[in-house]
Amino acid sequence: MTIFASMKRLVLLSFCALTLATCAADSRPNILLCIADDASWHHFGANGNKVCRTPNFDRVAREGVNFTRAFCSSPSCTPSRGALLTGQDFWRLEDGANLWSRWPNKFAVYPDLLAKAGYHVGLKGKGWGPGDFKFGGREHNPAGPVCKDFAAFLKSVPPGKPFCFWFGSQDPHRPYDRGAGLKSGHRIEDVTVPEFLPDTTAVRSDILDYYFEVERFDGDVGAMLKLLEDAGQLDNTLVVVTSDNGFPFPRGKATCYDAGTRLPLAVRWPGRVKAGRVVDDFISLTDLAPTFLEAAGLKPLPEMTGRSLVPLLTSGKSGQVDPMRDRAFFGRERHANVRADNLGYPIRAIRTADFLYLRNFELDRWPAGDPPLYGDVDEHLSIAGSPSKQAVVEHGDKPGVKRLFELAFGKRPAEELYDLSEDPWQVTNLAADPRYSEKKARLRAELDLYLTRTKDPRATDQGAEFDRFYYVSSGVSTKPVETNP
After folding, report:
1. CA 80, CA 254: separation in Å to the nearest integer?
2. 347-352 and 327-332 as β-strands: parallel, antiparallel, unpaired?
């Protein structure tokens, strides 16, 4: 073979290698995450709600997989989003375990990893936060560089390059436009009021206003799906629709009951995922980061406690697919600055199909924040900021509301146990009932084992460190909280 022929063959082989690499890159799916701000599982049509209109979430669920048992790592915006981004339980994230915290830049996030692998990455709306992500040296939010909107982002994607986009809605976060739900055509009489809220016209209207914003989020999801369709990209896009934590009502957001932790989760991925399936495996938002990495052909990081959903998505099965996914673990630390010395309210919990077990660590503290504001509920300094909160606080001494007041704002025992088959709204604590002592002990042991294995500071009596992390106001770090070690 002549030198010229050898060179020609080498160029041809190099071209083929480059072409194959380009094809491989092209075959990787785009990734679109749509995350609501404070929306609970049971307020979406595909999950059985007959009043709240969510046709686009329902479409993703219908054309993909609807996960019925998805939970956040923590029922608070900042730690929940941090856990999603890192694929790690929130208690492993140091400062990031609290709301309004500083982002600890030592932890890798999936958008950065995908960007290094050739993905075009962008963010619209609420990413990680609220908090200070610049403290550790970051130039943009861990969820991605900010874009004007999804349409502009799509135009900016280089030809043949896969993209990863985070759409962080601010719906249905409070405050609400009062009466918006009624004006949108909903009827007061159609609302189902949870057992932990008073059934009044004001509360029903408040829930309808919340529905209005859930529907607005769903409309935004629909607009993004349409843009993908028009661009011919929908069928090569892994679409995930979920929320960061539960609805902002008493005994909802910032609590470890289902109303605060159980989330909607639908995934659509044509070509890889059989449509029309309902999967009952327990899922954590920490599972999304390793899922996105595996979908892109990357290996999840060893430190990730979440597990990729790709085996479930591609299994073609419904119901309980993986028998090992039979429980979820979650908890919380400091939410808002609503207690003396800026202290939090630490909880850890385990949820199975039949039971919810909670461990409360600081029994002398007020779970919902110091009275009379109880600021962890709805994050409003004014009681009147939330009609549902107002209905409980201002009528808490009345016979029909007193128990609801204690459920939402009263101090709690060290342990809580709820039998979900008898008590789906989790309002009757059975931890002191001797009939459940064996079940309680077993769940306590399983929780302790998991916390130890995942190196939760609470498992080694080092949990006070969470109260000493910075609290950030308006994106600027303030001095550390002064507390006794």
Report:
1. 11
2. antiparallel
232-270 per-position pLDDT tens digit: 999 999 999 999 999 999 999 999 999 999 999 999 999
Question: Tokens representing 453?
Answer: 């294995």
For residue 426, the SS3 value is coil
Q: How far is CA 340 from the centre of its chain?
A: 28
Pinpoint the alpha helices (H) of 64-194. Answer: 77-86, 110-116, 150-156, 180-183
CA distances for 180 relative to 123, 202, 221, 383, angstroms:
28, 13, 20, 20
**Helix, strand, or coil here: 124?**
strand
Count of beta carbons in the 10 Å neighbourhood of residue 118: 13
Q: Which of 299, 426, 456 is nearest to 354 (CA)?
A: 426
- Are the CB atoms for 38 and 242 separated by under 8 Å? no
pTM: 0.92
Rg (CA), the chain: 23
**CA atoms of 470 and 165, how far apart (whole Å):** 30
Within 8 A by CB and 6+ apart from 228, the residues are 30, 32, 154, 234, 237, 239
Choose among 31, 33, 38: nearest CA to 243.
Answer: 38
CA distance 368 to 344: 10
Give the SS3 label for residue 349. Answer: strand
Q: Which two tokens stand for residue 192?
A: 């189902």
In the numeric block, the tokens 């999304």 are attached to 288
- Summarize pLDDT for 387-414 with one digit per residue, the tens: 999 999 998 889 889 999 999 999 999 9
pLDDT in tens, 160-204: 999 999 999 999 999 999 999 999 999 999 999 999 999 999 999
Residue 10 tokens read as 């080498």
CA 259 to chain centroid: 12
Q: Is 311 helix (H, G, I), strand (E, B) or coil?
A: helix
Distance, in Å, from the CA atom of 427 to the CA atom of 423, rounded to the nearest integer, reads 7
Which H or E element spans position 102? strand 101-102
301 HSE (CA, 13 A, CB side):
17
All residues at 6 or more sequence positions from 8 whose CB lies less than 8 Å from its CB, including other chains: none
